[in-house]
Amino acid sequence: MKRKNKVLIMIILMLAGMVALKFTQSEEVPDDWRLILVNDKHSVPKNYEPDLTQLSNGIYIDSRIYPDLQQMFDDARRDGIYPVVSEGYRTREQQKKMMQDKTDSFINEGYSAKEAEKLAEKWVAEAGKSEHELGIALDINADQSYSSDDDVYNWLAENAFKYGFILRYPQNKENITGIDYEPWHYRYVGKDTALEIYTRKITLEEYLS
């Protein structure tokens, strides 16, 4: 009887160790930082820390994507297209504030607090589950003095993959990404991965599955 108890205890400890290991691994930053998946089911790794660079307009991005971003913008301007980064890195606190502000705006429109929260969740990602907290996801719009947003979106759709960026939330993929079409939201994944995603017309979720 004692021997059986010891064996049972050993099995329980082994299983507990496996669960602990699995949990620890989910907390770690993947070997390739460019392929971190963040969505409503996958949070930003707790030990993830971007290496930030401030752009001339005050927005921060991860320093590792800056050279390719700068090259993309330089080439776009040579084609008569003038993009600007309107959103880059956001802290978790900033993401929380965005959610609260959006909720408050719906409350001001006459919705109940519960209704407002549900509506806000359709527009703003929960803190910890926004790609903007990685510093490698950007909202790119137009310098309205020289280009229209549609001009920028069209150019990016055809060229961004050459520089390592993908359209993160394409049309007709909402059931996979969980996010409506956003022609301004681009995510850095590296040139090889971007080429494959662009060529196969898939999402990051599909690429990683």
What characteristics describe this protein?
209 residues, alpha+beta, Muramoyl-pentapeptide Carboxypeptidase, domain 2, 2 domains, two-stranded antiparallel sheet, 8 helices, 45% helix
CATH fold-type name of the largest domain: Muramoyl-pentapeptide Carboxypeptidase, domain 2
Helical content, roughly? 40-55%
- Reading the helices and strands in chain order gives HEEHEHHEHEHEHH
Rough outline: globular
Count of distinct structural domains: 2
Q: Mean pLDDT, as a whole number?
A: 88
The counted number of beta strands is: 6
Task: Write the CATH architecture name of the largest domain.
Answer: 2-Layer Sandwich
How much β-strand is present in the residues?
Answer: 5-15%
The stretches of 5 or more residues where confidence is low (pLDDT under 50) are: 7-26
Radius of gyration from the CA trace?
Answer: 21 Å
Q: Could you please describe the fold and organization of this structure?
A:
This protein has 209 residues and is α+β, with helices and mostly antiparallel strands. It folds into two domains: 31-90 and 130-208, Muramoyl-pentapeptide Carboxypeptidase, domain 2 (2-Layer Sandwich); 95-126. It is built from eight helices and six strands; from the N terminus they run H-E-E-H-E-H-H-E-H-E-H-E-H-H. The strands form two sheets. A four-stranded antiparallel sheet has the order 3-4-6-5. Strand 1 (52-54) and strand 2 (60-62) form a beta hairpin. Helix 3 (92-108) crosses helix 4 (113-121).
